[in-house]
Amino acid sequence: MRSRLKNIFQKFRFLRSLRVRLLVIIMLVGTLPCILMRYGIMQSYESRTVRQRTTAVQTQLKILANHLITYNYLQDNSSEVIGAELAMLSNLYDGRVLIIGGNFKVVKDTYDISQGKTIISEEVIRSFNGESLSNYDRVHGYIEMTVPITETVKIQTDNEETETTVVRGVMLTSISTDSIMSTMDSLGQRALILEALTIVVVISLAIVLSDILTRPFARVTQAINTVKAGYSNEKISVPDYLETVHIVDAFNQLLGRMKMLDDSREEFVANVSHELKTPLASMKVLADSLLTQPDAPLEMYKEFMGDITVEIDRENQIITDLLALVKMDKKAAALNITAVNMNDLTELVLKRLRPIARKRDVEMVFESIRPVTAEVDEVKMTLIISNLVENAIKYNKEHGLVKVVLDADHQMFSLEVSDTGIGIPEDALEHIYERFYRVDKSHSREVGGTGLGLAITRSAVLMHRGSITVKSLENEGSTFIVKIPLTYIAG
Ligand code: ADP
Question: Measured between alpha carbons, how far is 119 from 101 in angstroms, rounded to an integer?
Fold first, then answer.
């Protein structure tokens, strides 16, 4: 059943084409009014002509009715004048006239068939009551009319004379509508020819118009294909319609983003190579200077080997950070969300970092405003806290202070890491999250920085749908504030 439906959809796939739809719409809009108009005009012509013919005959019949009374035709049908009038009427309208007397007897039939017969039909009875009737029979092609033959009679009562109308008989007439029909036939034929011509013109117009109207979309596809095939990397432009402008704008924006990604990837690769090469270059210099001195003292060997170990550690640190960053670039699906006690976690990280702080004579204070349990990835959360606290220690002054404050409202928890360190210049604030960015390269190198810590931290925070902000004053210190939802928002 499904595959059958699929087959049908496949067969009528062409209906989804804008060009076919336009073609159908233009054809319908062009031809339907034409057909309706022909039908309407023919109909109104027919009813108008039938009405006119009926009125004309009825008028003639009324005049004839008066003559019938004058000539007392109902009693004596020998009048030649009336005979001639009747013959003229039936000739003129190609019809038959029956004159029925008071006793429903046919006094005269112009066809000489029903003379002397009695006709009692509904119409005749109604006409005896004074009504004039007409009925158009389209199928058999005639109009039937019944008209009363009336006489005005004066009645003398006591001292008044009143006039009343008395029905003496009825005229039953049927006239042929063949002439109307033949006029209609020839009219209809002409209309049909016109209609066919119009349809041909409309269809040709529809084919041409639908092609012209949809051409800009083909141009959009062609332009995109050129970019896709790699022949061009330039922005495309199809300004024919607002719609194509919108599509092309969106495509150009996408192209711009792709270019940006490409550029940043190139820059990243260049940065990585440079960063990885620096320790190697140092090691080479150290090793070379030992090699070029054949009788170098043992102390020199020891010192240089110590320096080489430092460079190897640095190389190692850069690679570890890079791996952390690459992992972070994968989608949020990589998060391992559990309910984590943030107070315990922060305490643990601070405990781990305490030896480094002590080495630099930096005091660490943890202020927990309230117990916080949050749905987070524990490993990444540890990275966030340790990176921020490590920086606060690294970029501090002697006898400095690092303060960590943990707080929460009903939606988010916040982790505030402030230090009394060297601070960050205002123009550097917008760059500190960039990979490999360091305010003071030599100082960062001294303290063992790779320039990747804050990039990793920011990625981890964003994966948790949180935010990271910084306030800093040079020579006074910096405060990093991380806010993360208590419950993890997936999707
Ligand atoms: P690094 O490994 O060099 O510390 P980060 O990405 O962690 O790299 O930080 C980028 C730069 O931002 C650092 O080199 C440093 O210049 C500056 N920075 C970060 N944290 C602080 C801070 N607490 N105080 C002063 N400067 C900071």
Answer: 10
pTM, rounded to two decimals: 0.56
Mean of pLDDT values over 245-270: 90
Give dist(CA 367, CA 383) in Å, integer: 19
Band the pLDDT of 304: cuts 50, 70, 90.
Answer: very high
For residue 477 and ligand 1, the question of a CB distance below 6 A is answered with: no
Question: What is the whole-number distance in angstroms between the Cα of residue 230 and the centre of ligand 1?
Answer: 41
Measure the CA–CA gap between 176 and 93, rounded to whole angstroms. Answer: 7
> How far, in Å, CA of 417 to CA of 21, rounded?
63
259 C-alpha vs ligand 1 centroid, how far in Å? Answer: 29
Judge if the beta carbon of residue 453 lies within 6 A of ligand 1: yes
Residue written as token pair 């405990």: 351
Kindly report the length of the chain.
491
Q: From the alpha carbon of 439, which atom of ligand 1 is closest?
A: 16
Token pair for 49: 């002509």
Domains present along the chain, CATH in parentheses: 20-184 (3.30.450.20), 239-332 (1.10.287.130), 334-485 (3.30.565.10)
Helix (H) or strand (E) holding 376: strand 373-377
Q: With 90 as the cut, is the pLDDT of residue 247 above it?
A: yes
Q: In a 3-state reduction of DSSP, which class is residue 234?
A: coil
